[in-house]
Amino acid sequence: MPLSEAEAAHLLRRVCVGGGSDAEIAHFAGRSRTSAVNEIINDALTAPMPPHPNWNGLGSPWAEETATIGWWIDQMNESAAPLREKMAWFWHGHFCTEEDKIYNMNLIFEQNQLFRSAGLGNFRDLVQTMAIQPAMLIYLDNETNTKGAEQENFARELMELFTIGRENYTEADVIAMAKAWTGHNTVGWVEVNGTWQYVPHYTFKSELHDNSQKTLFGKTRNWNGPGTINEICNGAKKVQCSEFIAAKLWRFFVHPDPSPALVRSLGQRFRAVNLNIAELIRHILLHNEFWAPSARYALVKSPVEFLATVLKRTGVEIDANGRRWYLQGMGQVPFDPPDVAGWGANEDWLSTATAWGRARLLEHTRWQLDDLGHLRNLENAGGNVVANRVFELLGITEPSAQTRAVIRDWVDEAHAIRVQWSITPQAYLLGALSPDFQLN
Questions:
Q1: Domain containing 434: what range?
Q2: What's the predicted TM-score (pTM) here?
Q3: What total number of domains does the chain contain?
């Protein structure tokens, strides 16, 4: 069955951070589900990697971070591989690191590129590479994890947040895992021409590795770091790992409440394709439940998704500093998660504070709409005409009757009290603050 315009828009809301443009929606409308999903995934797997952001003359990690935030929003909206950017955004919230602690945007960007190059590949390979990247080594303190002075931060989060979940390991496993990862450090401080310099590159210091017998997941051997990841992904914890990741991806792409039976089915599918992430995503996007009415508008846009959608739908320009400022006001700044668990989702973004942050962004953008030719000549238009123009501008393909009624009644009142001049700027605010635009 060919995709309707509303179905194409639904698909693009889920695979593009900023949703679909009118042209993108038209491109996929009329296509089969399989054809559309295959094209989206193929583009994500084959498109060239994006160029490095321009840091010339910036001179500080804060300025480089701000520039990279602005650059990434553009990549999310303009990339020929939007699903790749969506997955990079997912992994950034999953394998969290924080610029404030690492204080080296080169290392952060290296990790960001890993999420693009490997974020749709084999999950085990992605975890193996992530584990020894300097950004993660520094952020979770494995850079100093050595025999006799074990550091448990990375060991715990590798299991709890990254692979299997809190209920699937013991405190004894944490101790064994930490010992397994001893010696997997950064080069550290070295003297170069009489000056001490910190070298952040990964190195394995065998003399600092604990070679004792360790019991992990009930198995006793001389565990070493990479072997623990193999055991999690393909050994004793393979069922828990596959279900943990599959469920999280389902909640990210579809809706927040997969049933236990569905999670088991998704995990089985993930294992059957050897933890190939792209194939799991293909399965999710083609699943009947993804297309069910209950999955439509079942997710709340995060601040990054909200900003990206506003910019994509309106064409308004906001510089990198402004983008960071507005994201900070909405509670989500890329590269600066609140903690290693990352940001919340859905109802976590429904608060008075985040609503005011979104309103400030919209207040800033509404006065540019007329310059861009949006929503002109509405002073004498009726309520339904105004509502339709707002829905068209914002890409709301299935407006609720309640939102339509609110806009229509407000327009009628504006005519009654003779403030028609306010219709153009205020109608945009009503539409963009409506539940229809806040939801994905």
A1: 303-438
A2: 0.96
A3: 1
